[in-house]
Amino acid sequence: MKILIDEIINEQGPITGKVHKLLELSMAITGRGEIGDDYIKAIEFPINDYTIFSDPYYGQIVIYSDNDDEEIEIDDDKTINLLMDELKKRILSFDRKIKKNREEITKKAFDKPLDFINFEEQ
To answer: What secondary structure does DSSP assign to 46-113, as a single string?
Structure first.
């Protein structure tokens, strides 16, 4: 997971795009969040009492408070880097904590034989 995160962070392109990809990864491993079904593919990802909104088309990152109508647009590189660092920490922490369960569940789901394949008939 660390290698994948480092690839995202070190790739060329806008910094907001890197945050978007980290949010995509967060969605994939946690099952949280929503991605728009239009051409923009904006992401809304909940963290505590906030929702991070990432619009890759316009390079916009906004954090909404779920408790009131407050919102903050994150548009400076320093804060975006802090957000990336925080997402990285949380992804790696989540990955470490589910490692044992993931291995057990993966084994149960994917180590079953493919009953429809019969090598003896070939």
So the answer is: EETTEEEEEETTTTEEEEEESSSS-EEEE-SHHHHHHHHHHHHHHHHHHHHHHHHHHHHHHHHHHSS-
Residues contacting 79, CB < 8 A, separation 6+: none
Q: List, for residues 22-48, the tens digit of each pLDDT value.
A: 999 999 999 999 999 999 999 999 999
Residue for token pair 């290698």: 3
Q: Which of 35, 26, 40 is nearest to 86 (CA)?
A: 26
Tokens describing residue 70 = 């407050």
Structure confidence by residue, pLDDT tens digits, 64-89: 998 888 999 999 999 999 999 999 99
Cβ contact 24:87 at 8 Å: no
